[in-house]
Amino acid sequence: MLSYAARRFLGAIPTLFVIITLAFFMMRAAPGGPFDAERSLPPDIKRNVEATYNLDKPLYQQYVLYLERLAHFDLGPSFKTKDFTVTQMIADGLPVSARLGFAAIFIAIAFGISLGTVSALNQNRWGDYSVMTLAMIGITIPTFVTAPILTLLFGVYGIHLFGVDIRLPVGGWNDGAVRNMILPVAVLALPQIAVISRLVRGSMVEVLNSHYVRTARAKGLPNRLVVTRHALRAGLLPLVSYLGPAIAYMLTGSLVVEQVFQLPGIGRYFVQGALNRDYTLVMGVVIFYASFVILLNLLADILYAVLDPRVRYRA
Amino acid sequence: MTVIDSDIALRSVRGRSLWEDARRRMLRNRAAMLSLIVLSVIALMAIFAPLLSAYDYDAQDYNVVSCAPDWWPGSDVVCRAGGTHWFGTDALGRDLFVRVLYGARISLAVGLVATLVSLIIGVTYGAVAGYVGGWVDAIMMRFVDVLYSLPYIFFVIILMVVFRRNFILLFVAIGAVEWLTMARIVRGQTLSIKQKEFIEAARASGVGTFAMVARHMVPNVLGPVVIYVTLSIPAVILAESFLSFLGLGIQEPLTSWGVLISEGKDQMDSAPWLLAFPATFMAVTLFCFNFIGDGLRDAFDPKDR
Fold first, then answer.
1. What is residue A310's three-state secondary structure?
2. Predicted interface score ipTM higher than 0.95
């Protein structure tokens, strides 16, 4: 197991290297640099500024310098936000994105597993059909449609429920107040609930038809125990490999949700950085995200082997 | 026993082909067939958009700015003055109906072309890797693995920034990312089919390489590919709309569903129809593709229901 993990870890290095190289040269191929603002700088000053950021050197030297820095875990200074390093900016945005992501993934797992299980237990009956129709809606309607619609309903119009006026803030972070988090978390969680419930339904249907579940039933175990002790344990396994990349995606922030609700998370930095040619910021976010995905995939695979005794990794 | 008798006996046990079986099951799937009809209607409307409306997609009429369709409930600003705008008008006085249809043109075109790009690259790549096998296969698939862990939407965004929101490039960029899954599917299928007895039988009876690939491999690989295509078209439409929503995709006055939804979102408290119509069209289209995809999967692989 350990040697498998070590091998996978080493295998991730060339992948990261390819990602870094691709991102670096793609970003530099963009016409226009970070300091070609509307108000052009006097040539002398511009030369000085570019020298400060090593932009006057040939491209391959910049690349080597960047890699050198990266080896010391230094993502460099932001080109656009003065006096901030990229590491600082990611550290600023991460808590916001991570809080949203954690809340959303938690809700998605809870709802997704229960809905999927209910659906599988009522296979091809109306309970199943209604959950699966809802899941289909959740998958097909993108977040950039649900976000404005939910904002309109709960934020702009407000909803009367049991004599209480519910009106939620339509944007802003407000230091992570719960009220501000409800809408973005809901938008983030909805498609994940849909995907997870479909996934769980599929694998549960398969497991419920398997021989060992039939044996458990034949022994006279109550239905509740058959489901929780026997079926769910195997039925939730496919979820583990799905959750790896899904968590990475949710924690690093959704580009759309952060844009629509004006939340100061990582996703928003990325879009702004790409539009402003903030080379280092964009690179930093891409590298951060990629390492996160790789790490979580690795964790998911290892967890899978721990949970499923049938899987054995050989080094 | 006459010749005719044995002929009848033969005919009565004549097996149905994989495709015939699939077609029968598909035709019996009501959700999928209904989706196919709805989708065809939307596609036809998109193709004949200029004939369906008296307005141009970029014609601005400042007498009718942001006015509701005349049947919209509880709205005072209606479009009577400027003729009938079935879906109302946007902030520049452009007819929303014709804009939604032009948006459909772009969104569907992006979906089809990008999927075609991914189909060509993916099938060729996957078939070569699977058919040749050995170390060639190992290297080719290792490359796909590396590309797989790239944060793809980030790269499409960088691409769009780099190449100044080039329209053609949008197709290529999305398609070039989508081919990875296609290549994996085709390779897996090719590998498993290569082992099957009927291939061995065909080889034993002296079928040449070309005929082997064309008559025996391709038709059997095609099933999963068709399924994946119907599922990847909506994914591409979503990706394009997502980019357009962030302002990186299609540029004005051309439009796509993503652009329209993005514009509608900004005015949704004063003019909700601007969000409602494009969002509905897009959701219905994505729904249809997904139902067709699911239907095809059930048709080709009925045990996996």
1. coil
2. no
